[in-house]
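Standup, Tuesday
Yesterday: got the pipeline producing structure tokens again.
Today: sanity-check two examples.
Blockers: none.

Example 1:
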Amino acid sequence: MNPSTSLRLRLPALVLMLEVLLLVLYSIFVTYDDNADSKMQNNVTKPMDNSLYRDYPFFADVQVMIFIGFGCLLAFLRFYGFGGMVFNFLTATFTIQWAILVQGYFQFYHDGKIHLGVINLINAEFACAVILISFGAVLGKTSPVQLLVMAFLEVPVFSVTEWAVLKYLRINDAGGSILIHLFACYFGLGVTFALYRPNLKNGHVKEITSYHSDILSVLGTLFLWVFWPSFNSALTLKGDDQHRAVLHTFIGLSSSTMTAFALSAVFNKNGKITMADIQNVTLAGGVTVGASVDMMISPAAAYGLGILGCTACYLGYRYLTPFLAKHLRIQDQCGIHNLHGLTGLISCTAGICAILLATEEQYGPSMYEIFAHRSPPLGDPRLLELQQLIPGLKPGLGRSAQEQALYQVAAIFSTIGAAAAGGVLTGFILKLPFLASPPDDDCFDDELFFDVPSDFYSEVKKVPLNEHDSKV
């Protein structure tokens, strides 16, 4: 064991510090929300009206995406299956615990306490998805100590950015195209830019897949695919908005999947299907419909967005990822810029178009629920009229469609800027020597951090030193 990468002291010491910190903060600040607090139950409350029964199915679905979907998807490398799945498990578990505190401070903090309920867990899972997407850019080139530090730093940057954008820019982002996909992508690219390894610019001998690792990875794709409608619809308004979100996500995923198979075959020199395309490009439609997922865009538009997003994602893997690595010092291991960056930008553009085209004739009075910031401000007689049609409608800012669209654009650029800056700074911190960064020769190799079974060595011997077959 190389003493510079040994986890014997580093990992236990970091975990102990983090657990003590979390225990103290939970003891001081975290309590139950009204739906979990026994003192709030009486002969008027009905158990089946508890928010658990409304929110838990979405929580469970996103849990499957986080721990099984992402975990299996990241196990595509032949000699890094343990690292892909297990480091995903470790990072996700810590991130959700940490995000409950950090996000809770901005969203659920009052009376000196963070009031914990299932909705907090769902929000924390979305923060966790951000970190795991960013993780994809540095897969195989970081230690578990570095990944925990990365999560520890990224969660506050994400939470502050999310809070500032939602509080001051007041945007529509039901599927998280801006605040999840774009933020995660450009944070991850910032980290990998700072961690650039010149010796890996032409690839690595162990940066290859195998028959079994590809099967495991596509299993992760299937879990993500099946549960993506819950991811996109979990935080939308209940009722017709959530219904549309499920429909649009499924339609977008379906069209992107069909397109991915066609593109994979037509661009393959032997006219065959490439597993890397199926593992990644098929998911593009779920991202591309995100910004407009709850709007009245029509099923045909959702279908078209799936095709467009898939095409951009595929071409990004084929041409843009090698360009970034060669010319911009961005070694994007899992191609997150294609699946989350390019498709996120397309999604945001589609969302802006949907905002500009939205009319009360198309949506009815519910337009002011979906586009809450276009609702008339307090004191406007029009607000009273709308509240008679939609009881509980809250005052808005009275924005026009054009004004709201400009705020969406401002959110895109501010989110990308904050994410990239935060990622670069985090990357430089991760270069500190005591964080057990793996040497270039030991990247993409489970043996560095795991006790591996005996058949692992027999697999290594099958790989000639000059063999290289990059996923991308």
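Example 2:
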Amino acid sequence: MTQTASDAAPAPAPPASAPNPPGRLHRAWSVAAVAFVTIIGAAAFASLPGLLIEPLHEEFDWSRGTIGFAVSVNLALYGLTAPFAAALMDRFGIRKVVALALLVISGGTAATVWMTASWQLVLFWGVLVGLGSGSMALAFAATVTNRWFTARRGLVTGILTAAGASGQLIFLPLLSWLVVHHGWRPAAVTVSLAALAVVPFVWLLLRDHPADVGLAPYGGSYAEKPAPAPGAARRAVTVLFKAARSGPFWLLAGTFAICGASTNGLVKTHFVPAAHDHGMPVTAAAGLLAVIGVFDVIGTIASGWFTDRFEARRLLAVYYALRGVSLMLLPMLLAPSVHPPMVFFIIFYGLDWVATVPPTIALCREHYGEDSAIVFGWVLASHQVGAALVAFLGGLARDAFGSYDLVWYASGAMCAMAALMAMVIRRRPAALTA
């Protein structure tokens, strides 16, 4: 067949780097800024559950166990959705998935204003908000970083991780003030509006891939946008079954489940009502929880530095052991007012909050190589399942025993067990990791 001149002419080669004029900011940074604002908005609905337990208990006479069950459904779905969220973004695009997730979160939160039965709390806050938040948070940050940045990935990952803590710092004091002075409904509406307000930013300013706007990733070379990957979800399940046949996976999943139980499930959900039980004002307790978010950023960065220099499993053992000791001491620190020992606990717990993440990722990378990101997604799912169980069981224990003391002591013991589990993880021989 004879080829025409137009058929034979090669397509012009795309630029090797972003064609930004000198002095212009690369588009990747504006995409990262949109992601930062989105994650801050997402922090609003992550901040609210612990503030709702007492108001919902007083208004509807629902048990703390019932309210904790709704929170546990939220946390479990957040974790179980996460391994598939990246697959959804590969299939349908970041912008569509994140915008839809924010709309689901906004609708689910707004619907709680009219609820009259506890099953509605489980449906609106547990199912809808859980699915929406699981479809965007961690997978969103990772996907944006991987697609738009070749250089500065560590910096961008740290910034987007810090966005969650920054959002917690912004929203917790505001939401606690609204709950105390105006009731829980205005706080729920505020969360709904925060999620809704971010949607235009996502839809108008976010792009799925640098090639959509004719750019290369920041610090990298131009590459065509990959075709949708409908088999990504199947790969996530395949990797799970493969990893589940190895011992390190269960040890990592077990330790991270305890991590979630002792952070999101316990402290984020039950610290405010537990402090209120001892006479501390809700606004003061929420302020302490917000301070944890500040030191969370410092602790994460420091832990990454330590992970580059020390054996990851030993770091995990130290982190969990110290966390367990602090939880054992917490019942003696709770009081009507904030005092120096409580401030020390808050600072320490903030530093330790997600310090477990860098060494856990390092161990996933060491044992599972190119599948490590997906394996970590499933390990993260165990984190949220552990959080969900303790969010529920903590409320039941408070109903049964009249205090949270047993919950603190049991969680401290679990952290001691996690420290032992971390030490059992063996280093993978160099010949096998090569």
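Quick observation on example 2: The domain at 234-428 is CATH 1.20.1250.20 (Growth Hormone; Chain: A;). The chain has 18 helices and no strands.
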